[in-house]
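Quick one - inputs below.
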Amino acid sequence: MSSCGSPIPLSAGHSKGRAALGLIHRHRPAEGAGGVGLRKTSSSLPDKKPFGTRLKEDWMHNKWKYIMLVPAVIYFIIFSYKPMYGVIIAFKNYRPNKGIMGSEWVGFLHFKNFFQSPDFGRILRNTFSISGLGILFGFPAPILLALLLNEIRNEPFKRVVQTITYLPHFVAMVIICGLLKTFCLSDGVFNTIIQAFGGTATPLLQDSKFFYPILIGSDIWQGIGWGSIIYLAAIAGVDQEQYEAARIDGAGRLAQMWYITLPGIMTTVMVMFVLRMGGILNVGYEKILLLYNPATYEVADVISTYTYRMGLQGAQWSFSTAVGLFNSVVNIVFLLVANKFSKKVSGNGLF
Amino acid sequence: MKAKSKIKKSKGDMIFDVINTCIMILMVIMTLYPFYYVVIASVSDNTRLQAYKGILMLPQGFNLGAYKLAFEHPLILSGYKNILIVLAIYLPLSILMTVLCANFMAAKKVMFKKPLVLFMMFTMYFSGGLIPTFLNIRELGMYNSLSALIIPGCLSLYNAFIVRTAIEGIPDSLYESAYMDGASELQILFKITLPLIKPTLAVILLYYGVGKWNEWFSAAIYIKDNAKLPIQNILRSILIENSEILNAKEYGDTVANSFTETIKYAAIVISTVPILCIYPMVQKHFTKGVMIGAVKG
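Output:
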């Protein structure tokens, strides 16, 4: 999860984790955060002044605020809205020499071709497989770490573990993938361990059945510590008296963790889960681009990597724009459904 | 309370503690081993490292030649230089853009705030996608220019929300006296607001900086000339594509041949050290930064 604004959106909703952290609308103070920065409700008195006067007063009071926003608005027009207009080439036969306007309309031809191509089923299946496995294994991992970290009573040791597990979050994807390549060689670290347990050594990245475990495993390695921050903060907000009561009733630490801590952070877990479901098509394409090879295309090719290969390497501009648009639309549908669900379940949503 | 829980410790709790501590130690080892591996491999002897099989625990021989080569190689040097040029413009630009944007979003009683914020937020959920974005950059004449790495992505709304929440945390009374003294909007922003949210600015500076430092995809699609590539893309050629980029004739001799393996690790070390140096300074603010982001609204 890169921490800057990704300038190349392969799919709508850039980084799901970031969006999740940044944009949870809380309709009540969040646990563990003491309700920092809760927005004050502006005066609810009905404004009786005529619109023109209000407009004038607004400009007089907030002139500089508006002026200072101009760079941001221009930025979004040029780098976000202009490419959105460019999406219409999905319905055209784009020729660079003719430009967007001059290229001929073809309607839904590219979509039809995409849905009928043998690649469609394969990349959709891979996208959902990788995303699903990520949710199944990658999602609970930081929760588990937060729960276990919370049980460590030795504060300095706890801090050391935290500091160290946050570290991989800041390591470049290129470096992680480079090391994975070395570790996956037939005489590499992973194979040494496999052999120690009686397995046989194979070049792991050349074998399609190991691709998902490598992908998901390294994602967990990189993200587990960073992901646990939000859950640790939620745990800090759990009512301490409940633990006292449980201790008196003779509950062990494991029981306290299971029956008090976990239910106590369930709201946070639910929101994070729903948000994750909302970004189900946002598969980390960078790692796949760096790790896949012809031997693993069959299982590794996802919508984003397909767009990249067809569009930038194959120069099928219109076709891959159509594929990208399909991705964006499915994403936004998932996001809206997940948001509605989240609001129903926990009262929290994105918008 | 701590003492009490110690006395009351049951056998089950003790077993739990031991297992938990073991899991944590295992996690620490699994997290740190790759870092350790890179360091000891980078100072190893190339031939002995290549011949080594199994889990590397100690350096194989000792040879700093890979570092010497890395620090002298024109491509690695130009990669470093390019990313530093990019950062020197990108960081002040992105901080300024973010602060201006956040200052607006934190403002109260602004008539067109809601539609303007929605206008910006929409871009978080829907985008033109890879190809229209690429064509747009090419149309703007930024193809094969470092500006393609600097200007797109210089404003992240996520970071703007973090800054906005920090600004909202400043008590109104501080502003009122400044307004009464006749301070202008810009003076208030730079003299009152910004000094008060320095820790938050440090966190988003780290987010922007590390994000840009680690980014490779932009340069991979927008930059054509090897000499303009930032360090991550040079690393990608060495580590992922196993390319002979370092040995290319235009870069002089083929001395890199004798460091085929160790040069990889030396390059990783020198490209990661800057981040690891900044990390401890900002680390204590992380939790705050993440949590502030989580309670927007």
